[in-house]
Amino acid sequence: MEATIALRLPRDAASVPLIRQMFDGTLRSLGVVPQIRDDIELMLSEACTNVVRHAAPSDEYMVTAGVHDDLCVIRVVDTGGGFDPHQVREPKESAESGRGLLIMRALADDVRFTNRRENGAVVSLEKRLRFEAGAAGLSM
């Protein structure tokens, strides 16, 4: 079974719920269990929110999100200034933001950050899927 969504989105806050809802609808229709859908929704939101907040001077970004058998693969690609994930500091316990990379690392089965120097960054997230009994995703 394979299902993929690919969108080029404007780098603004309104794009985050759009891609999140579109992909959640796909996962729901395939019968992915709610806990896994919630994890994927949060990972995707964090990756896209980081682009919106930090990927200047880029005006847009690309998201591909796909299901390949029992694996969800997400790639968020921007053309901003890039970043080094090893240089990102851990947020203070009282901080209200800055936890995006930690959340992605905690929820994903595999996460990779690729810095393309002054040509942006790629965030790749993978998550194993579990399906409801009798789900459409099991029979494809």
Itemize the secondary structure elements and their pairings:
Blueprint: E1 2-10, H1 15-30, H2 34-54, E2 60-68, E3 71-78, H3 100-107, E4 110-115, E5 121-128, H4 136-139
Antiparallel strand pairs: 1-2, 2-3, 3-5, 4-5
Helix pairs in contact: 1-2, 2-3
What does this structure look like?
The chain is α+β, with helices and mostly antiparallel strands and 140 residues long. It has a single domain (2-139), classed as Histidine kinase-like ATPase, C-terminal domain (Heat Shock Protein 90), CATH 3.30.565.10. 35% of the residues lie in helices and 29% in strands. It has four helices and five strands, in the order βααββαββα. It has helices at residues 15-30, 34-54, 100-107, 136-139, and strands at 2-10, 60-68, 71-78, 110-115, 121-128. It has a five-stranded antiparallel beta sheet, with helices on one face. A hairpin with a 2-residue loop joins β2 (60-68) and β3. The N and C termini lie close together (5 Å).
Question: Which structural traits does this protein have?
Answer:
5 strands; alpha+beta; 35% helix; five-stranded antiparallel β-sheet; 140 residues; globular
In short:
The protein is 35% helix and 29% strand.
